[in-house]
Amino acid sequence: MTTRPLDLLDVDALHSEEELAIRAVVRRIVDDHVRPNVAQWYERGQVPVRDLAKEFASVGLLGMHLPGHGCAGASAVAYGLACLELEAGDSGVRSLVSVQGSLAMFAIWKYGSDEHKDRWLPGMAAGDLIGCFGLTEPDHGSDPGSMTTRARRDGDDWILDGTKMWITNAPVADVAVVWARTEAGVNGFVVPMDTPGVTAREVKHKLSLRASCTGEIVLDGVRLPADALLPAARGLKAPLSCLTEARYGIVWGALGAARDSLHTALDYAGAREQFGRPIAGFQLTQAKFADAAVELQKGYLLAVHLGRRADAGVLRPEQVSVGKLNNVREALAIARQCRTILGANGISAEYPVMRHAANLETVLTYEGTSEIHQLVIGQKLTGLAAFG
């Protein structure tokens, strides 16, 4: 009799019936709409963002943890479970949902005016409008405070100039939340993507996260009305709070890629025979499985703890850094280990493991590299900032 890795500690007992029901819905939509197609999307480097957004919106996944304006208002733990199931399909698919809900929609929901919220959030929740989040620049990733994108006043209007890079959803987006330096510091702007002077170019030739639409946004004398400014966003803490929101989803999502890799390897090892018996029966293979299962469960317990703190309104950014650092690092190690169990078949698109491992190389560095999260934790432990 076999036991699935997350059943070893009976972690389902940690969840309410509602949370498990939401998980089941997301698992079904991934099984129906992602798994049959994702290997092809990955190989081609193309993903039907708008079609997927509509499917996800049909079950309330877009901005699901936000209240009002057509959003589901689900708990943080339920949102985490959704991220796990989405990334069990593919990291790029989870990124679509994360950027839409936890970056673009969250920024408008938290920092926008009532007019911003009424104009954009219902359509984004319904999947009719796609959003993106413009913070990272070609020369400024881990140090967003050094951004060179500028916004200057011209009468009552704003004029934006600059370039944003590695922006998920940008080539198909209807609206971008763009962060720029003004005389007052860092401010956020709601930028319709059809505004004159805005150009989005798709990033090609990626070797990771290929089932995700990634682009560069060029802002060349983009004129925006005064009310394009996010009125409640003042300083760099505003975009960083959005990143914390998105990083929380990654804490859960990475576990989905790890779980799917481990399930695939277990099924494969039970059927693959060498030296007259299934390779699952060899001690070295079982040691790999045991270590992977232990790390998966530890990461899951950490994610649940952070989720409960988020639902209680007491989750702190450095705690999210602990989750992102640990869970992505361990998920990548699990995917790599599972690839070895599949041997040569591990590099075939017939199995998802190599795709998960390649994707997790990107997840390891976006939304804060491992080194940045180490420094966040280190600062909290020592009281000394070691950035720069």
UniProtKB/TrEMBL annotation:
Residue stretches making up the Acyl-CoA dehydrogenase/oxidase C-terminal domain: 234-381
Alphabetized InterPro entries for the sequence: Acyl-CoA_Oxase/DH_mid-dom, Acyl-CoA_Oxase/DH_mid-dom_sf, AcylCo_DH-like_C, AcylCo_DH/oxidase_C, AcylCoA_DH/ox_N, AcylCoA_DH/ox_N_sf, AcylCoA_DH/oxidase_NM_dom_sf, Glutaryl-CoA_DH_mitochondrial
Cofactor(s) the protein needs: FAD
Domain Acyl-CoA dehydrogenase/oxidase N-terminal, residue spans: 16-128
Keywords, in A-Z order: FAD, Flavoprotein, Oxidoreductase, Transit peptide
Domain annotation Acyl-CoA oxidase/dehydrogenase middle: ranges: 132-222
Biological-process GO terms, alphabetical: fatty acid beta-oxidation using acyl-CoA dehydrogenase; fatty-acyl-CoA biosynthetic process
Pfam families documented for this protein: Acyl-CoA_dh_1 (PF00441), Acyl-CoA_dh_M (PF02770), Acyl-CoA_dh_N (PF02771)
Gene3D superfamilies the record matches: Acyl-CoA dehydrogenase/oxidase, N-terminal domain, Butyryl-CoA Dehydrogenase, subunit A, domain 2, Butyryl-CoA Dehydrogenase, subunit A, domain 3
Domain of life per record: Bacteria
GO molecular function: fatty-acyl-CoA binding; flavin adenine dinucleotide binding; glutaryl-CoA dehydrogenase activity
PANTHER family: GLUTARYL-COA DEHYDROGENASE, MITOCHONDRIAL
Similarity remark: Belongs to the acyl-CoA dehydrogenase family.
Name of protein: Acyl-CoA dehydrogenase family protein
